[in-house]
Amino acid sequence: MLIKILGAALIVSGLGGWGLYGARRLRERARHLQELSMAFGYLEKEITCIYNPLPLALAHTARFAPEPVAQLFSVSSGLLQGRSGMTARDAWLKGVEKLSRLSPLEEEDLLLIQSAADQLGASDASGQRKFLSLIQEHLNMAEQTARNRAQVEQKLYAYGGFIAGLVVVLLLI
Amino acid sequence: MKNSPATKGVKEVLAYLPPGLEKILQYLDEKDCRELEEIRLRVGRPLLLRINDRECTLDNKGRIHHEPDRGYTVSEDDLRRTVACIMDNSLYAFEEDINRGFITIPGGHRVGLAGQVLAQGGEVRRVKDFSSLCIRLAREVLGCASPLFNLVCPRPREVLNTLIISPPRCGKTTILRDLARFLSSGGSSWPGCNVALIDERSELAGCYQGIPQLNVGPRTDVLDGCPKHLGMGMALRALSPRVIITDELGSREDVDAVRECVNAGVQVISTVHASSMEELQKRPMLKELLNLKVFSLAVFLSRRQGPGSLESLVRMNDYAD
Fold this sequence. Notes:
The complex is a heterodimer. By secondary structure, chain A is an all-alpha fold. Chain A has six helices and no strands. Chain A has one domain. Helices cover 82% and strands 0% of the residues of chain A. Chain A is elongated and about 70 Å long. Helix content of chain B is 30%, strand content 27%. In chain B, β13 and β14 form a beta hairpin. The chains are: A mainly alpha, B alpha/beta.
């Protein structure tokens, strides 16, 4: 009997934990999108006001942004500072790859960030301002959508996990 | 490629090339490195090098050929990567340099840019879609102006207003730089003096982020990237130079500024493009400059015995137009 109770508790807590994890990822996605938008704003100032070279601008942005968003900027900055014939595009894509492993951002978010690769550092200051503002706008929209989705779905995930656990236990009994 | 003073300049440039091109150019021997003047990258066309007076190319195994068709073909990616590296992936930080048509990299090497030019109101607004690069290696030949020292400074504390004249690629800039170094440093017959170097195209001092990369002497102030006529005025007012040195006079403003400097008791040493006095006379601004007898000495250079060959001297006081 004790084993049955322990097993049931494990199933409920396991599926409940999975549900909570899903709910947290939904909240984190929205937060990361917001942090990314702020980081792009900082990068825009570094580029269009201070005219810092891109590797330095990215390094400064990495210091400003919280983890794991900072990884996007620090990885690409590090690669560019290495002067290994790497272009901003290559370095940025490596940064996005690293971020995708650390953040719950979805495919569409990553594609949006990736789209900056071809533009980063590749135009004059006004061109950079326009494109970075556009990226921020898209990120803000994505953040809003993610927040709405999180509001609706995070309860579903949080309670759903425990409910699913109980259902499984009942079926097994 | 060995580490030596001869290969130093080439290595500085190679750091900006993509790995494939860098590897090919590593095969150049020390003699070729010493004489390498230009590297030309054009998309879809062969890599071309100017080594002394020869034009040659390298295949992808680094072998030298004199037929361009046998050379390594520069790809769009090669050019894109080189441009990205030269500009530190930050085109926005080099807008003014791009609009001027060149960028100076550490070591004083100049990279000329060609691509699609967008002009508006008679001014270059933007250059984009780069299609070719001309990398000119800065050559610092210490002592190359020594045959001119006694002519330019005939007596202690006397410097003659001097015009160095030659067609392009005859070593005017190298000699002018060495004259600046000598006048600034001094020697047994010359105590050294304040020199203002107006380096509109960042060629004389090879400044990178404002710091001279080439030896222009301890008493030299460099106005980097500054238009000549403005620089001469600024130097006169603020830097109390004994000598002002600048490259390639040509415009009305330049002529007026030179006259202003000379009338203020400051000596001017400069250069112009021409191969003879007759050619100079055909350029209205320079003709006016000659007629004003601002310059006391004209030095003609050629490449007859290599760059910087002293062709002839004209004492302008004796020269009648």
